[in-house]
Design goal:
By secondary structure, the protein is of the alpha/beta class. It has 22 helices and ten strands. It has helices spanning about 20-30, 35-75, 75-130, 135-140, 140-155, 160-185, 185-190, 195-230, 235-240, 245-295, 300-340, 405-415, 435-440, 455-460, 475-480, 485-490, 510-520, 540-555, 565-570, 590-595, 595-605, 610-615; strands at about 365-370, 385-390, 395-400, 420-425, 430, 445, 525-530, 555-560, 575-580, 580-585. It binds adenosine-5'-diphosphate.
């Protein structure tokens, strides 16, 4: 069951993909362990309630017999009424206790189910977010979302409510059976004759149900992925007028869910219909046979009534046991998918724990013979023995045709991935040995299309700081001013508390860039990574962004993926990346004079206001 994987992916992603059903079921139920005490109290309430339930038919039977006896003998009405009142009071008392117990049981079991799910979801989220970046390259977001919400929802009640209903049904059914036998062994034996049929049909049904549930969950995860993708990319959908096509794509995925859902509905219909026929048949038989016994004087009318009520109890409770078990089967299916995720260990070694290293004004990056391929495409060698040396305080520009490996270099500096061979060091320390939080406070990125979170501008600017409460508003404003963002933020009615919308959709491209610059510099990083926008902003925004960048570049090491002539001209060193290696390096004038790959590139690719004058 490797449903988490993309089609093009090797199955080795989950070591524990093959959880056995039994083991999963046990683990699923033990999720409720933390709620043991509450569940114990709930179980006590459950037993009290169940005993009350089974006690009622006996008293009701006695009540009927009192009526019949006194009716026959024609004794005084008062005596009969006394006995009746006493019986009735007993019944009322028992029903009241039973009602209260049922209320307490329902409350306690439901509350513990909520808590179990709450913890499970939090654990799962924490576990997913700690996976390495390569994992997210391979696994669809919709799939993860589905496991986090849908699968955990199915699992929610397993160890708590389901178990409680199963327990209650079993208790009532067992007591009911015992009382049936005590009332009339012969009628009981007759009733039980239908058992083998029920067992066989249940076995077939549960097998089918398990298969259909697994298929349905897989299909609904696929549908969720489609929905997520379409809504998340609504602008692309709209701009190509692909609403209908998207709807069809979703309907196609949802059609799979429906197909399995219909199969499941049909098998449920067969199962419950068959059971109902068998059940009704056995009741009719019991009534016919029992009535003859009453006529023959071997059984009282009250006893027959009690017996029938017990038989109905047993029937209903066995029925609800069956549906609980079918829910549990679904939960086990869902839990396998969740445990599979929970058991996955990140493939990337955790970062070393040592605290800050090197001189505060460091910022030297060295790639030494780095070989790298993406985990999702291990057969494509992206970097092939690349070496580069970015000195501290240098502005280092990466240029080259698209697909050469520039972004990959920037990804590796952030340790999104580890190279297969070679080493990357920051101020002489291997990246894996640098403490995770510290590394990311020292390396900040401003990318082409910065992603903001659907929170306030303040939240977004302080996002890079581990403890945002340690940052004063003055510091945030200072960063915003440096980033040329202060004025436009102040112009919003809610200022820094303005919500930016999903992915920052409510801000213009230039505004987003400047918020991202403020975010990047608030941590005072040694190294600034820039991924220059290929698409031009309007002239004014462009100028504001450029000015802000120049300000924050000062005194820092800058590694920039350059698309503009103005950028490479101001770089201390330019490296032309092609096919995963550096093919040329030097300063802009030197490289231009050399007339090699760089000169060609400048003529063809690098754009900018001064392009004509410099190349003509
Ligand atoms: P550039 O930034 O120079 O345009 P990239 O570093 O983005 O080049 O890409 C280099 C190669 O790596 C390309 O062949 C690209 O298809 C591949 N690549 C980039 N990102 C990934 C990824 N997340 N998973 C798999 N392959 C990738």
């Amino acid at each position: 069951d490797y449903t988490l994987l993309r089609d093009d992916q090797d199955a080795g992603d989950f070591e524990t993909g093959q959880q056995r059903n039994g083991a999963s079921a046990w683990r699923l139920i033990s999720l409720a362990k933390e709620q043991a005490f509450v569940l114990f109290l709930g179980t006590v309430a459950l037993l009290v309630g169940s005993l009350a339930t089974v006690a009622v038919p006996k008293l009701a039977g006695e009540l009927i017999d009192v009526c019949i006896t006194y009716g026959k003998e024609g004794s005084s009405g008062d005596e009969a009424k006394d006995v009746l009142n006493k019986k009735l009071l007993q019944i009322i008392g028992i029903l009241a206790v039973g009602g209260i117990a049922t209320g307490i049981r329902t409350w306690l079991f439901n509350a513990s189910a909520e808590k179990v799910m709450w913890r499970l979801r939090n654990n799962l989220f924490t576990h997913i977010i700690l996976q390495e970046v390569g994992f997210f390259d391979r696994v669809r977001t919709g799939e993860l979302m589905n496991r986090l919400s849908e699968d955990t929802r199915l699992m929610k009640s397993a160890g708590t409510i389901s178990i409680s209903i199963a327990l209650r049904s079993s208790v009532v059914a067992i007591f009911g059976l015992i009382l049936m036998f005590m009332t009339s062994p012969l009628l009981s034996a007759l009733t039980l004759a239908c058992l083998p049929f029920l067992l066989v049909s249940f076995r077939i049904f549960s097998k089918l149900n398990m298969k259909y549930t697994a298929e349905m969950l897989t299909a609904s995860a696929q549908a969720a992925t489609v929905a997520e993708e379409c809504f998340g990319s609504i602008r692309t959908v709209r701009s190509f007028a692909k609403e209908t096509a998207s709807t069809e794509r979703y309907a196609g995925a949802q059609g799979q869910v429906l197909q399995w859902g219909l199969k499941s509905a049909r098998s449920s219909g067969f199962f419950f219909g068959f059971n109902s026929i068998i059940g009704t048949g056995s009741i009719v038989t019991v009534l016919w046979f029992g009535a003859r016994q009453v006529v023959d004087g071997k059984l009282t009318a009250g006893q027959l009534s009690s017996f029938v009520i017990y038989a109905l109890y047993v029937g209903t409770n066995v029925g609800s046991l069956a549906s609980v078990i079918s829910n549990l089967i679904q939960a086990v299916g869902a839990s396998r998918r969740v445990f599979e995720l929970l058991d996955r260990q990140p493939r990337q070694k955790p970062s070393g724990n040592e605290k800050p290293m090197g001189a505060p004004e460091g910022g030297e990056v060295i790639f030494d013979n780095v070989w790298f391929s993406y985990p999702s495409r291990p057969d494509v060698q992206v970097l092939k023995g690349l070496s580069l040396h970015v000195q501290k305080g240098q502005k280092f520009a990466l240029v080259g045709a698209s697909g050469g490996g520039k972004s990959t270099i920037v990804n590796l500096i952030q340790r999104f991935y580890d190279p297969q061979r070679g080493s990357i060091t920051l101020d002489g320390v291997h990246l894996p040995e640098i403490q995770h939080e510290w590394l990311h406070s020292q390396v900040s990125i401003v990318s082409q299309e910065p992603i903001l979170f659907a929170e306030s501008i303040l939240y977004n600017i302080t996002f890079g700081v581990q403890d945002p409460s340690s940052i004063s508003l003055a510091q945030v404003e200072e960063a915003a001013k440096l980033a040329n963002a202060f004025d436009f933020i102040q112009a919003f009615p809610q200022g820094f508390n303005t919500k930016v919308g999903e992915r920052g959709i409510r801000l213009s491209g230039g505004q987003k860039q400047r918020v991202a610059i403020a975010r990047a510099i608030l941590t005072k990083p040694r190294i600034l990574l820039l991924d220059e926008a290929t698409s031009a902003l309007d002239a004014e925004s462009e100028a504001l962004v450029q000015e802000a960048l120049e300000r924050v570049e000062a005194g820092r090491t800058v590694v920039v993926i350059a698309h503009r002539l103005s950028t490479v001209k101001t770089a201390d060193e330019v490296a032309v990346i092609d096919g995963g290696v550096i093919v040329e390096r030097g300063t802009h004038p030197d490289l231009l004079a050399k007339g090699g790959a760089y000169a060609v590139l400048v003529r063809r690719q690098l754009s900018g206001p001064k392009l004509e004058s410099s190349t003509s």
